[in-house]
Specification:
Layout (H helix, E strand, L loop, with lengths): L6 E4 L1 H5 L4 H11 L5 H15 L5 H10 L6 H16 L7 H10 L3 E9 H11 L3 E5 L3 E2 L2 E2 L11 H14 L7 E4 L5 H4 L4 E5 L3 H10 L2 E3 L17
Parallel strand pairs: 1-2, 1-6, 2-3, 6-7, 7-8
Antiparallel strand pairs: 4-5
Helix pairs in contact: 2-3, 2-5, 5-7
Length: 234
C-alpha cells in the first residue's frame, strides 16, 4: 500500500469559474475609481493574449504590480475580499462543485493552483472547501507593497516549480495526482500529473487533449461526466 498522498490541483480562471478574474477585477477597480479606463482596456488586452497563449505574462504582471507600489497590503486584501464575494464567488461553474466533493470523498488533498493572487486563492479555498493554495505572492515592506512579485511567477513552468516544491513538502505523489485546467499555458503542469483533466479548454489544449486521449470535461452544466478516481488509501 502506497503511503504517498494524492492531490487534486485546480486552476481558477475559466476552470473553476467561467471567466478570467483579472478582467473582472480591473472592472471592479475602475468602478471604485482606483484605476483608469485605459488600464482596464490594457488588462483586457493582456488577458486576451493570455487566453491565446501569446505574449509575456511576466511583463504583464510586472506592469500591473507597479500600480500597487506603496499601497497597504491590508487595504488590498480588503478590496480583494469584497471583489471575491461580489464578482468571483457567484461565477463557480455548475459542474465544478460535484468534482470537488468527489475528490474530498476520495480522501484527496484539494489545492488551488492559479496565476491569480494569493488573496483570491485564499478566499476561494475558504468558500469552496479546498485545503491549500499555490498562487502569486507579493513582497511588502512595513506593510506596503514594493510593486513586484515573488519569482518564479505561478504560470506555465512556474506552476510546475511551485507545485513540485509543495508536493515534496506535503508528501504528495504527482503521478497519482490530478490537475484540472482550461489553458494550453498549463501544459507543463498537465504533463507532471498522472491524471491530466481538461475543462472547457481553449482550442490548442483541446487539440492536444484529443491527440493524447486526455479526459475532457464540460463544467458549464451541473450534470457533468465524473472523472475516474483513485482512492487515497488504495
Amino acid at each position: 500500500m502506497s503511503q504517498a498522498k494524492i492531490a487534486a490541483f485546480f486552476d481558477l480562471d475559466r476552470t473553476l469559474i467561467d471567466v478570467n478574474s483579472a478582467i473582472l477585477y480591473a472592472q471592479f477597480e475602475r468602478k471604485h475609481g482606483r484605476i483608469s479606463t485605459r488600464q482596464v482596456l490594457t488588462t483586457i488586452f493582456h488577458s486576451l493574449l493570455y487566453h491565446l497563449n501569446i505574449g509575456s505574462m511576466e511583463k504583464a504582471y510586472a506592469r500591473a504590480m507597479k500600480h500597487f507600489t506603496g499601497i497597504a497590503e491590508k487595504d488590498l486584501a480588503g478590496w480583494a475580499k469584497d471583489f471575491f464575494e461580489e464578482e468571483v464567488k457567484p461565477r463557480l461553474q455548475p459542474g465544478a462543485l460535484p468534482v470537488l466533493q468527489q475528490h474530498k470523498n476520495a480522501g484527496h488533498i484539494l489545492v488551488m493552483l492559479t496565476s491569480s493572487s494569493c488573496y483570491q486563492a485564499d478566499y476561494a479555498c475558504q468558500a469552496w472547501g479546498l485545503d491549500h493554495w499555490i498562487a502569486n505572492r507579493f513582497p511588502t515592506e512595513n506593510g506596503l507593497f514594493l510593486g513586484t512579485y515573488h519569482k518564479p511567477l505561478v504560470y506555465g513552468d512556474g506552476k510546475v516549480h511551485h507545485a513540485k516544491a509543495w508536493a515534496a513538502d506535503a508528501g504528495v505523489d504527482l503521478q497519482r495526482s490530478y490537475f484540472y485546467t482550461d489553458s494550453y499555458s498549463d501544459l507543463p503542469m498537465l504533463k507532471e500529473v498522472g491524471y491530466p483533466m481538461v475543462v472547457n479548454p481553449d482550442p490548442k489544449l483541446r487539440a492536444h487533449a484529443l491527440k493524447y486521449k486526455w479526459e475532457l470535461l464540460d463544467w458549464r452544466q451541473p450534470k457533468t461526466v465524473m472523472p475516474r478516481m483513485e482512492e487515497a488509501n488504495a
